[in-house]
Amino acid sequence: MSGWFNAHFVSMVDGVAYGLLLFTLAVGLSLVFGMMDVLNLAHGTLYLAGAYTAYALSDGSWLGLLIALVVGLVVGLLGGGLLAAAVAPLQGRGHLDQAALTLGISLIAAEVMVMLFGAEVLPTAPPSALSGSVSVLGHTYPVYRLAFIGIATLLAALVYLAFERSSVGALVRATVADRDMVRTMGVDTRKVLFGVFGFGAALAAVGGVLGAPIIAPGPGIDERVLVLSLVVVVIGGLGSVRGALLGALLIGQVQTLGVALVPSYAPFLLFGAMLLVLALRPQGLFAPGRA
């Protein structure tokens, strides 16, 4: 067993980094879908916008990364606000209309980004201070990916505390459970729902900035990360922060270990894992609507 662990150690650590990156994307999608009942197929485009922002503004310095993060945050908030405003008139008309609208927005935005940045994948370098490698249990591993694991773990903890342990999270859950009751308390529920949408969008864009050195921006990347995020949401359960984290880490391991162990079947393992979870627990690993 120790020999197997040693042989695949790097793949497993890669799976953790990959899974945490998927979490930053999927948790926003899960919360928006589970709490606002909005199917946002433009979510992957928000990651792509953040990744292109990192490519354009990161210059190998800490300042460049900080500027990219701030700009990515603003882009995510604005994008989330615009998407929330666009789908607001469609609430109550079903998910098909929401999916068609957000998919159309996604296709237009992706085409605009291709016009601006070209039709090639653009490798994005991390800050020069994090560009090297270190030895971890006798294996060489990129410093940036270790740093990303630490940052993403902190983000996951903050998101969990915000929705599970804070008064803001309690207000969001109350709004989802009974909007009329929350309105009688003088709370504008539209602002609450727009806030959840903006938060999820901002997290996806920030994830794009931080994840650009791992999944570089380019045509089709938005579709790729959207599909992976949807799989994570299905596995973890709608509206569940814990479910999104567990599902993302599971998919991260399935992807990286699958490529290492059975490369010919790796593309099928992702959906095999989803089908297995759906067969055993159709509502996902955690009950819908629980953060």
Question: What can you tell me about this protein's structure?
Answer:
- A hairpin with a 2-residue loop joins strand 1 and strand 2.
- With 291 residues, this protein is mainly alpha-helical.
- Helix content is 73%, strand content 3%.
- It has a two-stranded antiparallel sheet.
- Helix 2 runs antiparallel to helix 9 (189-211) and helix 3 crosses helix 9.
- It is built from twelve helices and two strands, in the order αααααββααααααα.
- The relative contact order is 0.21.
- It has one domain (12-122, 133-280).
- The radius of gyration is 19 Å and the shape is globular.
Topology:
Blueprint (H helix, E strand, L loop, with lengths): L1 H6 L1 H28 L6 H15 L4 H26 L7 H23 L15 E4 L2 E4 H22 L2 H11 L1 H6 L4 H23 L9 H16 L4 H21 L4 H15 L11
Antiparallel strand pairs: 1-2
Helix pairs in contact: 2-6, 2-9, 2-10, 2-11, 3-4, 3-5, 3-9, 3-10, 4-9, 6-7, 10-11, 10-12, 11-12
